[in-house]
Amino acid sequence: MAGLEDLYREIILDHYRTPRNRGELEAPAVSAEGHNPLCGDEIRIFIDVKDGLVSDVRFNGSGCSISQSSASMMTTAVKGKPVDQVRAIVKRFKQMMTLDEDENSTIDESINLGDLEALQGVVKFPVRIKCATLGWNTLLDALAETGK
Amino acid sequence: MAGLEDLYREIILDHYRTPRNRGELEAPAVSAEGHNPLCGDEIRIFIDVKDGLVSDVRFNGSGCSISQSSASMMTTAVKGKPVDQVRAIVKRFKQMMTLDEDENSTIDESINLGDLEALQGVVKFPVRIKCATLGWNTLLDALAETGK
Amino acid sequence: MTFDVAAIRKDFPVLHRLVNDKPLVYLDSANTSQKPQVVIDALANFMKHGYAPINRSAYQLAAEATDAFEATRSALATFINAPKANEVVFTKNATEALNLVIMSWGRANLKAGDAVLLTHMEHHANIVPWHMLVAERGIQLRWVPLTSDGQLDLTDLDSLLKDVKVFSFTSMSNVLGTINPVQRLCAAAHNAGAIAIVDACQSVPHQPTDVQAWGADFAVFSSHKMCGPSGVGVLWGRESLLEAMPPFLGGGNMIADVRLDGFTTAEVPAKFEAGTPAIAEIVALNSAVKYLTNLGMHNVRQHEIELSTYVLNTLNSRFGDDITIHGPTNPELRGATFSFAFRGIHPHDLSQVLDQTNVCVRAGHHCAKPLMRILGANATVRASFYLYNTTQEVDALADALDSASDIF
Amino acid sequence: MTFDVAAIRKDFPVLHRLVNDKPLVYLDSANTSQKPQVVIDALANFMKHGYAPINRSAYQLAAEATDAFEATRSALATFINAPKANEVVFTKNATEALNLVIMSWGRANLKAGDAVLLTHMEHHANIVPWHMLVAERGIQLRWVPLTSDGQLDLTDLDSLLKDVKVFSFTSMSNVLGTINPVQRLCAAAHNAGAIAIVDACQSVPHQPTDVQAWGADFAVFSSHKMCGPSGVGVLWGRESLLEAMPPFLGGGNMIADVRLDGFTTAEVPAKFEAGTPAIAEIVALNSAVKYLTNLGMHNVRQHEIELSTYVLNTLNSRFGDDITIHGPTNPELRGATFSFAFRGIHPHDLSQVLDQTNVCVRAGHHCAKPLMRILGANATVRASFYLYNTTQEVDALADALDSASDIF
Ligand SMILES: Cc1ncc(COP(=O)(O)O)c(C=O)c1O
Ligand SMILES: Cc1ncc(COP(=O)(O)O)c(C=O)c1O
Q1: What would you report as the CA-atom Rg of chain D, rounded to the nearest whole angstrom?
Q2: Bridge partners, residue D89, by sequence
Q3: Structural domain A4-146, CATH architecture
Q4: Which domain holds residue D84?
Q5: ipTM, 2 decimals?
Q6: Is D25 helix (H, G, I), strand (E, B) or coil?
Q7: Which residues of C touch A7 (CB under 8 A)?
Q8: Is the pLDDT of residue B109 over 80?
Q9: Is D56 on the interface with A (CB under 8 A)?
Q10: Beta pairing partners, C323
Q11: Which chain C residues are closer than 8 Å to A41 by Cβ?
Q12: Which residues of D are catalytic?
């Protein structure tokens, strides 16, 4: 539909219809829960961190196409990566989601977001940015749990 | 000054400059206090009721020309009168001070307000009606005290 | 008089705004209503020629402003058939009005263990302040459940009301559209020795209101949902109850006297109106009340019944099992507010697609998360209709729904 | 740029209104200010073309309204030099803002016996909520006294501050015009381990504000005194303090989740903004902030110093001992708000006479009864000047005062 192509790219709808890494992980994996009070979306991210690597990651919950596909794409982007690199990807992704770039932070061009670039179109729909970042912020919370 | 003749009649200014029955009464007289939160005016009414007669009445406090003269004129109007008649005068006066007549109450034409009629002009200045009625409402409170 | 929607639409400038060359189809009036030109003019004219403080100054400009301000209080009293104008208290919104009653009456009258009855279809404004009082006072909350078609299940009402001190409920659900039997509920509350608080936000703008016929003790509603300016809420309460309540916010206007060691309160309603109120907005609200009164609230209600009938027929016949409309199926038992689920499309996505053809609906939990959980949803799409909506706009909604299926 | 009052006056429609064929001399801006055409237009235009709910709906009209609404929050943060926009909380007026801090921060942090320091020149809004907390919590209040020319007597400040948890004071007296040394008072509070709450109602509209330079913890002010619409107040608070505070009003928008058995709160500022806010008024307030910013708050202050100088010279030279002007005699130490006693004429009578020539002044206790008692008066007449007032209007005031002597 005219005007919405930027939002509902095919790859996004694909991750929405066929989510990757959907499910849960048992302890010692940790988890965190995120809410979008605006629309009631809920997400839970499970991660297993071993030897500084995010060895496994899963998500569940319910929400709109943007929040679900973004979470699904996020899991494929971070799975198996070192924690440091995961943090860098999260940072890069959140930069992409910001309308006004934070002048003080430089963009790490070495990080290639790959398929995630498809979510760039969300920036034109400011109300949906929170949907796209929900899984990512929850991932940060889960990472914080591993430090405890 | 043009426009204010109705408010500041000569008799009103006379009672303001030379208040009648100003002062206090000792027990067994009773008293009540009234405030006009709008302008900070304060008034205290003392009455001595004997054998169903308001045998003596005094007022003190401070306030504008309208509140003070109205209280002064009130004391001269009720002093020595039977309580029933005093209540009737209060009622008649408050009727005069009302912009919209209460349809259900009939006006007792037998009560002649005399000099008090001068205060009729206050009705054109709605903010000042509370000044004019302050002493009268406080008199009702004082009468209620005698019943206790 | 017939209800001439085409003429009414002319009164609302925003309905003529084109967004991306298409007219606006505003179906979010349960959230907040649009404003007729007369209200906008009343507000602008007062600000241009009559703006002044109220209550505290004696000059003519201020006296006129005070009269205009108090005229709204009287007009509202007439509009809801309150016995006295001074029973009408101005707040900033219905939420503040509910907090005022719950905190002021509640703190003075409720102690640990006391029970309060609510319903499963309440708005957060009639839940969260009670939770705050639970935390502060240890009161307990009970809930009237719902039937499968979204009405209050009153089977056990009498036992639920046993030993209850307050029954606080909505006159119409902002999610389901259900119109509750307010009069019956107030009577049941009183029989049980409880007071009745009516959250009348969703009914006052849409049908005639008579707080005396209801037999309510308190009622709250908002200006912004009834064609009036934003920033104004209304609390109506029985004079004797208001008089016995402690103040809520402290400050100017609500006092009789202030000393270094304490204060005494003014009479109602001033006692509950601390600080400078929304002067211009309250003055302009009178124009909204007049506007609604001139249309006739019975006519507004009739129009919405007709719209509701058309909505139910159109959506059900066009979409059959693909659509689940919550709430009563009988238009006489509901307002023109429809929450629905459609072809498994997430409400947020659905509303985004509808917006492409300027169909403005709300997607979310509608400030009723407990009800959402009962409906088994995180969110719904809600289309809510008002006096300016037409059957063509119902068709526009249906067409837009159809196009959503192309994407998902 | 010189400050062109004649041009500014053209922006304020009400100043061209003739009452009884005479122009209005509006000298009551400390009570509430008049509104420039740009603010009225912003309000009307938004209501005509852009009105929509904020925060909760996803369609374009609502997204635009939300952006316009949040733009005001950012503009206000810049206007008072707040570190972050989300430290700006919208309330209905400054009174609610004070109640919010006092009740929310106070209930969480003050216990029986804790001391709070106020001053003898506070407005009821910064006294009554504390009295309510005295009754509820058993805290104790202390007071900074005044010097004979109406300044804070800071001789014993350090001992007054001993063991004090909060120092809450006005940046400028609404009766005396006295400008207080806010920065010094905040530093003294912090030295003593107390937080500092600044009632900035009378200074924000009249001079540059920098809450960071002040070193304050909270500040409150009202839209209606700074050329903005009525119905909006502002609370600024340090983010860390706001985050640690419990909510004040409960309802929609201030929650993260609500269940039948409890709720969790949203982030600041939403946590303190329950219910539908004054959407259109807050959007229009941005135009007032722009209007003031374009004039330049330094210029506004300079204009008012010049007016104050003229007021003091004119009234003292024309009336000598017949007039007693309260507050500082040095225009650098005061705002252009003058309370005075004149020839023993009762303030209410005096303001009535002034009104005959359309000179609008307030007579009363100005919501500062404790201060009135210290001045030994039930009431004063107060003439308060703003950016649109002229020296000719000072002359009009003096002429009107002269004519009052004819009557009394
Ligand atoms: C049923 C109901 N109660 C309370 C409210 C709260 O009203 P407001 O946001 O005007 O405070 C609303 C509207 O949001 C409502 O629909
Ligand atoms: C110093 C001061 N504080 C507080 C207030 C209260 O402001 P508002 O009436 O807007 O709540 C006022 C104005 O009335 C004031 O002058």
Answers
A1: 22
A2: D235
A3: Alpha-Beta Complex (3.90)
A4: 41-293
A5: 0.93
A6: strand
A7: 352
A8: no
A9: yes
A10: C342
A11: 348, 378-379
A12: 367
